[in-house]
Prior knowledge:
Elements: H1 11-24, H2 32-39, H3 43-56, E1 59-61, E2 67-69, H4 71-100, E3 103-110, E4 113-120, H5 142-148, H6 153-162, H7 176-182, E5 190-193, E6 200-208, E7 215-223, H8 227-231, H9 234-252
Antiparallel strand pairs: 1-2, 3-4, 3-7, 5-6, 6-7
Protein name: IclR family transcriptional regulator
Keywords: DNA-binding, Transcription, Transcription regulation
Organism: Actinomadura nitritigenes
Amino acid sequence: MDETRRPTLIASVQRALHLMEVVASHPSGAPAKQLAREAGLPLATAYHLLRTLAYEGYAMRLPDGVWVLGERVQSLHGRSRTQQLLARVRPTLIALRDELGVACYFGMHVDDEIRLIDIADGPRAPRVDVWVGFDESAHATALGKCVLSQLDDERLRDYLSRHPLVDLTPNTITEPTRLLSTLTSPCGLSLDRDEYALGTGCAAVPVTDATGGTIGALAISCRTGKLPRIEKSADRMHARAAELQRTLTLTATT
């Protein structure tokens, strides 16, 4: 006999979450008595829950006696937006990984630094050993060079002034003039041939949101000998980058 089991629910957690929703419905705050009434809770229970939420940073009592959400809620909100971004980005990375049989990366220019946001790899498509962070090795990676190519002159000069062009392999470009000459590509494909790690090649295409305000790059890594075949698949990378552009635009408006 099939029987749908109801999940085991903890009533106190339900009451606390419902109370937080009621607090959030009052942008200017509300007194405990009003919150208790709207949440359908005894006043004593509401007080206990509010004090607990305040202790944990999820609620705060202002000097005039009204309650508002605490700063920790905003922190959670920021983290949830990052998780939402990952949830939307990862399917595209996985799809490209499976199409090309390579590890795929997504990076963005955040707070004047280049950050690696997500990676999709697997047993047959291992990621490159990130022994130097992408934020410190932009000049030696396709992903980093692709992001740098999208910066205006002022931001590009600022970034390069704060990040020395360290040689990571004998093939790393360490001369600023030469690096700048490699940032432009007629097909919009940035490349790294053994510049970050010997035996590893990378390719990247730009990703922006609809306004151009979000700057990022979709990249892959593979054995250097496989790179020419990847170059011939640039159209697939650009198509997946367009998917990410739509994702970024959707994320920014929700």
